[in-house]
Design a protein that fits this description.
Layout: H1 6-38, H2 41-63, H3 73-80, H4 84-117, H5 122-135, H6 137-156
Length: about 160
């Protein structure tokens, strides 16, 4: 494509947009919403785990490792010696990736400070996981159906020995 980047970088950038946009909603937005709604330590821990991965990906994007489908600082600076106009265009997403990485880190630290200030801890999340999951009526019903399903199939169909046939 432009500036010798090839179709690989463009294809990878499209994949990043198509995959990570819905994943951000499913993986971290829902967990933080549930965490604040129900004051759930487990959902906070899930959010921290997933959002830390997103912060890591944002840092990789802002670095701009050539061939990874991102326009970060390394790729942009190397393009200034090749084509100044394209490097200036690449500077816009580079600044945006840097802003996203910085603001994501700030948001993560603010939410972590809020969580720790409200008395949350890893042991509270583990306790919630151990006790809360099996007390949930929806989880209990699903477990009963999963256990009863094979047993009902076994007893509902007649069993014949080879001598009876």
């Amino acid at each position: 494509m432009f500036g010798g980047g090839g179709v690989t970088n463009f294809g990878l950038s499209i994949i990043w947009v198509l995959v990570f946009t819905p994943c951000s909603y499913v993986c971290w937005f829902r967990s933080i919403y549930k965490a604040f709604k129900s004051d759930s330590s487990f959902n906070f821990m899930l959010f921290f785990f997933v959002f830390m991965a997103q912060v890591g990906i944002s840092i990789i994007q802002s670095l701009g490792i050539p061939g990874w489908g991102v326009c970060g600082w390394l790729a942009t600076i190397s393009f200034f010696s090749y084509n100044i106009v394209i490097a200036l265009i690449m500077l816009i997403p580079t600044i945006m990736f840097t802003a996203v990485a910085s603001l994501s880190f700030i948001a993560l630290t603010k939410i972590h400070n809020f969580y720790r200030g409200s008395g949350g801890s890893m042991s509270k999340a583990q306790e919630e996981w151990v006790t809360g999951t099996w007390k949930n009526p929806h989880v209990q019903a699903a477990a009963q159906q999963a256990a009863a399903g094979p047993m009902q199939d076994q007893f509902s169909s007649p069993q014949y020995n080879e001598n009876q046939m």
